[in-house]
Amino acid sequence: MEIEQEELTITEVQDMMASGKLTSRELVLMYFERIAAYNRQGPTINAILEINPDALHMAEALDREREQKGSRGPLHGVPILLKDNIDTEDKLHTSAGSLALADSYAAKDSFVAKKVRESGGIILGKTNLTEWANFMSAGMPNGYSSRGGQVLNPYGPGEFDVGGSSSGSGAAVAANFTMLAIGTETSGSILSPASENSIVGIKPTVGLISRSGIIPISHSQDTAGPMARTVRDAATLLGALAGKDESDPATLTATGKMPDDYTEFLNENGLQGRRIGVVRKRFLDELEPPQRELMETAIEKMKDKGAIIVDPVNIPTADEEWDINVLIHEFKVGLHAYLKNLKPGFPRSLKEVIEFNLDHSESALKYGQTMLLKSEATSGTLTDTDYLRSRVRDIKLSQEKGIDAVMEKHTLDALLFPANYGANIPARAGYPSITVPGGYTKEAGQPLGITFTGKAYSEPMLIQLAYAFEQSTCHRTPPKL
User: Fold this and answer.
1) pLDDT at residue 3, as a whole number
2) Could you say which of 189, 192, 220, 390 is catalytic?
3) Integer Cα distance of 368 and 354 in angstroms
């Protein structure tokens, strides 16, 4: 069939598939056409690094399975893109955007990829990203990788920031190259591209989704998360990805804290009576006037929907001088653990990655590798005094003296931030956030997301708030490509 609607949702697709009006094969072909038209030509969004050569065959197999056995669930036959730092046991590479790993195939599926396949989802391909998940150089622009080049924002190619580091995942969802994508975040890497591309992004509590088989930065902060055009779709994907993984100790702490279905918390009246703290100092107050106007409008809308707005609230530790020692030290340890499982011929250490880049400096070091060099200078044993002190300090300042303190003081259900402003603090705490479209600036038409943040495993509450706001505003408008 000829599919005219761009902004397809999971519910719409499953209804059409159940009635025989649409097949998964037809859906995959539609996305092939979109990608062909806009990824490498036209506006050259450059969000997609690779297409899965088996995607169409997988779609056909799932169509047959639906006919013979029925549907596995809401993701049956749904195409999903994965960020190129997530391992897949197929004909797709996993490179983190680095030329050093450009030809590397993972030996087995990441836990995330395994969950996608079990749910009946189709791994459509891999998305471009900011190289090494934006941990290569402080001067590297969002969305750039040596392997894939520059991802552009569909709302203003070459004009608006695309956000990082899950840039390709965000731009692909926004441009309707896919229905769903999976990104990863260490600090703002889902929230930033979700905001910049006017989509929904969920950065879960660390441990809700397994980190196994994902090229790491920090075992303290890393997590995968869903990116979609609606809160319902993002909540559906979150439920499919969450789960216990014996090979990832962080998931063992989440036992009993993972609902089977996060869509149960979708409530159009979900803002009614909820206490939301507006974090102005250092965050909302730093916005330019057009963005600030959008945030003030969003706050008024929440009031209209019955939310109790506590304005302002201050995170007690927001003014502290935060360092990045934890990331610098943990990157080397985590990367070595990942590289040891690669096939012969690929780097086995951070030092070898650095040397590869130096040997191919013209193509691999357009923006340098300052962060890699800083990490290489550490012991790689996590015994360094500055690491241990920073780790303890981060936990105290972000959790008990930070988010916990302000939420308990004001009896809050959530904190409100613009875009990924403030993402640093819940990232260090390992706490969840969700970004939802908050509108577009009047003159430039630049997207801005609003972000709800809460304590550990508060995803049900955050989804409830984001869904109620989304349904009352319906801000998302597809880009004109």
Assistant:
1) 62
2) 189
3) 10
Q: In whole angstroms, what is the distance from residue 206 CA to residue 220 CA? A: 8
pLDDT at 79 (0 to 100) = 98
What's the angle, vertex CA 319, arms to CA 183 and CA 377, rounded to 5?
Answer: 60
Say which residue the tokens 């705490």 belong to.
429
Residues of the chain with pLDDT under 70: 1-4
Residue 187: active-site member: no
Q: Which are the contacts of 107, defined by CB distance < 8 A and separation ≥ 6?
A: 87, 89, 341, 342, 343
Which one of the listed residues 165, 167, 187, 195 is annotated catalytic?
165
Rg, the chain, Cα only:
21
Please give the pLDDT value at position 2.
55
The stretches of 288-413 forming alpha helices (DSSP H) are: 289-304, 325-339, 350-359, 361-364, 370-376, 385-395, 404-410
Q: Is 189 a catalytic residue?
A: yes
- The neighbour count for residue 304, using CB atoms within 10 Å, is 10
Give the pair of three-digit tokens for residue 185: 């975040």
pTM exceeds 0.85: yes
Both structure tokens of 265: 């918390």
For the stretch 45-100, pLDDT in tens is: 999 999 999 999 999 999 999 999 999 999 999 999 999 999 999 899 999 999 99
DSSP 393-462: HHHIIIIIIIIHHHHHHHT-SEEEEETTTTTHHHHHHT--EEEEEEEE-TTT--EEEEEEE-STT-HHHH
Angle between helices 24-38 and 55-69 (to 10 degrees): 160
The alpha carbon torsion through 408, 413, 417, 420 (nearest 10 deg) reads 100
CA atoms of 3 and 279, how far apart (whole Å)? 43
State the pairing for strand pair 48-51/122-127.
antiparallel
Q: Which one of 24, 83, 210, 455 is the catalytic residue?
A: 83
What CA–CA distance (Å, rounded) separates 178 from 443?
29
- 165 is a catalytic site residue: yes
Residue 4 pLDDT: 60
For residue range 248-291, what is the model confidence (pLDDT) as tens digits?
999 999 888 999 999 999 999 999 999 999 999 999 999 999 99
CA distances from 412 to 12, 205, 407, 429 (A): 35, 18, 5, 17
pLDDT for the residue numbered 255 = 84
